[in-house]
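Researcher: We plan to redesign the surface later, but first we want a full-length starting point. C-alpha cells attached.
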C-alpha cells in the first residue's frame, strides 16, 4: 500500500504541479500580451512623434528657404528707396526739357533710361497708375480728395502726384494719388 500511495501522491503531485504550471503559463501569456500591447502602443506613439517632428523640420526648412530667397530679393531695398527721389527728379527734368532741341537733353534722357534699366534688372518696377483708374487703398495712397470733374470720376484717380514702385512682389512706395469725391 505504501507503494501505491506513493505513486498516487506522485501522480496527484504531478497533476497539481501541471495545474499550477498551466495557471502560471496563462498569467505569463496574459502579462506578455499586455506588455506587447503596451510596447506596440508606445511604438505607435513614438512613430507618430517622429513623423510630426519630421514634418515640422521639413516646414522649417521650407520656411527658412523662402525667407532666405526673400532676403536676397530685397537686400537692396534701402538703396532702391534712396534712389527713388533721383528717378523722380529725372522724370521731372525730362518733362521740362522735352520742349528743348538740345543735344544735352538727349544725353540726360540716355542716362535716365540707363539708370531705369539697371534698376529694373535688379527687380525695381514702376506701378502703372493712370488717371481714371478706380482707387484701391491696397495699392494707392490717397493724398487728397477733390470734387470729381464728372460723375463717372467719383472714387477714381484724378491725378498721380508720385509714382509707386515694387521691388520683386513687395511694394516699397505706394503711388500718391488725388481721388475724385
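Model: Full-length starting sequence:
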Amino acid at each position: 500500500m505504501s507503494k501505491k500511495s506513493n505513486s498516487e501522491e506522485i501522480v496527484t503531485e504531478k497533476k497539481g504541479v501541471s495545474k499550477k504550471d498551466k495557471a502560471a503559463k496563462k498569467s505569463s501569456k496574459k502579462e506578455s500580451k499586455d506588455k506587447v500591447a503596451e510596447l506596440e502602443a508606445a511604438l505607435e506613439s513614438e512613430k507618430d512623434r517622429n513623423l510630426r517632428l519630421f514634418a515640422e523640420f521639413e516646414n522649417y526648412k521650407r520656411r527658412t528657404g523662402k525667407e532666405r530667397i526673400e532676403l536676397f530679393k530685397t537686400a537692396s531695398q534701402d538703396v532702391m528707396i534712396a534712389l527713388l527721389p533721383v528717378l523722380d527728379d529725372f522724370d521731372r527734368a525730362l518733362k521740362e526739357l522735352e520742349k528743348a532741341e538740345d543735344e544735352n537733353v538727349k544725353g540726360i534722357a540716355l542716362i535716365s533710361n540707363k539708370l531705369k534699366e539697371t534698376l529694373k534688372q535688379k527687380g525695381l518696377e514702376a506701378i502703372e497708375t493712370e488717371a481714371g483708374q478706380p482707387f484701391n487703398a491696397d495699392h494707392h495712397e490717397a493724398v487728397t480728395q477733390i470734387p470729381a470733374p464728372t460723375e463717372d470720376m467719383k472714387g477714381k484717380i484724378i491725378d498721380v502726384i508720385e509714382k509707386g514702385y515694387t521691388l520683386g512682389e513687395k511694394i516699397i512706395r505706394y503711388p500718391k494719388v488725388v481721388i475724385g469725391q
